[in-house]
Amino acid sequence: MRRKGTDKMKRDQSAIGQISSRSFQNSKGRNIVAVCAIVLTALMFTTLFVLSQSIEQNLIQMTFRQVGFDTHVSIKNIEEEQAKKIAAHPDVQQMGTSIVLALAENRELSGQQVEMRYAGEAYAAHCFALPTTGHMPQSDDEIALDDITLDRLGIPHEIGQQVTLEWRKDMNSDKYTTSTFTLCGFWEGNTHASASMAWVSEGFANSVCNTLPGIPTGICGLRMVQISLYSDKNIEGVMDGILADTGLTELHYGLNLAYDSALKEQAFSEMLPMYGGMLLVFLAGYMIIYNIFQISVTADIQFYGKLKTLGTSKKQLKRLIFRQANRLCFIGIPVGLLFGYLLAVVLVPVLIVRQDTATVAANPFVFLGSALFAWLTVLVSCLRPAMLAGKVSPMEALRYNDASGSSKRKIKRGQNGASVFRMALANLGRNRKRTALVICSLTLGLVLLSSFYAKNASFDIDKYLETLTLSDFMISDGTSDDYINGYDPQGTTLSHKLMAQVEAFDGLESTGKLYSQETTVSISPQALENIKRFYGIDGRLDSMKNDTAWTNGYNSAVTTGEAASTVYGTDGLIWDVFSDTRYLMDGTFDPALFATGKYVVAVGVGDDDYSEQMPTFSVGEVVEIDGKKFTVMSIVYPLESVFGGAASFPFSLDLVIPADAFSELYPQNTLRKLYFNVSENRIDAAQSMLTEYQRTVDSSMPIVSRASMEKQYEEQTRSASIMGNAISVVIALVGILNFINSMITAIVSRKKEFAMLQSVGMTKKQLRKMLIFEGLDYAVLTLLCAYTASTIAVGVAVRAMVADGFSTFQFTLTPLLICTPILFAFAIIIPYICFKNLERQSVVQRLQGINCI
């Protein structure tokens, strides 16, 4: 009996398989549309999975490069014997060792930290600083450098070149040592790290550091190790165990920031758009695939009714539909995976602009996850159509007329019969669910496209650039951003020769000069009250406790009544910023009065609430700067493009006076920054002039141009723009595919009905017109919904999204305006083509029910 039951089951499965195959072959048109939908769904899932994984991997790689190494743990100031004990522990996979000597302090290297060190190859490799040309130093006169340092020194990238470095054995001493080495290796520099490495041999390092008496108080001889474990799970627990086992619990180790929980949170926040995109892709994929199978079931409902008459069970009918779905998945998903990965390969370098090279994730789990999500989307989409096929009775199937419910509305007749337009409109109401699904699918893509476009169009390049540069060009002293040795107020980068070149440049429109000097000022009782009140509320003082230097400066100012101050001397176009109400936090700025040299402008803090009194001198107070008194005219916002750069005192009351008054107080000081604007047609020439000066005269001179900032802006906004538009376009394509599928299937499934209409007098022209009107009705209803929803989405949601930051809201529905004629074209062309295909059969053939697909 059991064997008979098994044989019957096999025969049933075989019969279902044969029916499924024949039904599949007889529905080639629907299958092509379904496969296209599955390909699109799998493509987007794959692309989004690969992008999300790539973003996470590249974020980790970026952090590795920023911190300067990719091992799990680093330990500073460790003895050689201690390092050997840790290296011998079974939980340690690899250890690299380095000995620090000094900082290279050549004038050409101002603003760049170059650390002279010895390191083993393992340490150098994990620091992204292993020579790719040549080798690590072996003899005492050899050195290996990155190309960044070579360029700053003006040395060709050739083995054997002579390299001269100036350095100090004791950083607290003024005695410099000059050493000349032979270049034995070089590599591409890490532009994201805070320091470059200058590798010397172990023998040279020992000979230098061992000559220092006793334990050196500086950095010379400092031994550091980097440790790689076998896993990045529970790094701190493993390291604590290693130190406990070796008896070195007094050592302090540093965890690589790439493995910190904060980075995981950042990675999650950066991948949120991808997860949102996956949800939208699932929704769009569900809409079309559900509609395809729903239409397929309703079109073949009589076929399923006949199968039920022959004894097919509900379960077997469901299996038949899921079998067809799996067959379509077998074709569509691999194609979608392939094209999705290829699309991701193109998009990853475009989206990830913070690295020189972007890695594309390609592990098997990405493809398995994408395939699984696409397959689940298809299965979920098939649930309701399968239930409909299983529930239908043979009698219901014979009476089925593709209408979602009964309608008592009568179509009004004209003088020459029923209105073709009204018939087309009535046909849409026959299956309202299908009509609503198609309209929703199309509307979703159009609304998203409009929203992303409006958001991108609202980015304001001028707002962005104002915070970064005041002019077409900004050139600075080489020490202006030297956070290691500090700014030299008597630097020589902006020489008289350069100034003469700029002032004589053909096309020069305006200039602005900036000087600076650090000093100390007495705090008035009013200013002291302002400072205490400002930092005493909203937990501001508590939030600064981790910054020891700032906290010490604050406490010293409050206790002694004196504070560090950076005094800036300004003129020219810088004053235009002080006059701008957007950056004026209190008071007013009068350029004529300010030029008299009797007034000072105080600099506030970066707080958006200008209603509060800033923690500095109040407007109208008198401030004494190195023996000369000034009256506070106004308080301005601390623009990075003006007040940014190296400073010795984190807590400082910054003040601005005219350049002439500054020169009277500090006659020996030289320019810190020079701003200048040129005519539009001379920008390239000005850039060439500065680049040539930088190349031939002073490689340490930083150049910031408006053009370079615009490029940076485009890179920062490119990721969100492309990703959002790509998802929107794909969803819009899914909607159009849904529309095409619905129109084709609706026409083909009603071939008998059309034949009957023609048999009672409807002409081909009238029938064609009715079908075109149906398409136009779809388009009109979709556009009405899209324009309404887009107006709300753009006017409310997008406006709220761009309220802050570098944006100025712009209401625009340009994508809808572009899509409108395209949608109308589809609405006319698709019914026309379908009708031409329908005409291949005669009215009699269609009445007899011969399949035309």
TrEMBL record:
UniProt-recorded Gene Ontology molecular function terms: transmembrane transporter activity
Name of the protein: Putative ABC transport system permease protein
Pfam families: FtsX
Superkingdom assignment: Bacteria
Transmembrane parts of this sequence: 32-51, 272-293, 328-353, 365-383, 435-454, 726-749, 770-793, 813-835
One cellular component (GO) term of this entry: plasma membrane
Protein's membrane topology: Multi-pass membrane protein
Annotated ranges, domain ABC3 transporter permease C-terminal: 278-394, 726-830
Family to which this protein belongs: Belongs to the ABC-4 integral membrane protein family.
Compartment(s) of residence: Cell membrane
UniProt KW keywords: Cell membrane, Membrane, Transmembrane, Transmembrane helix
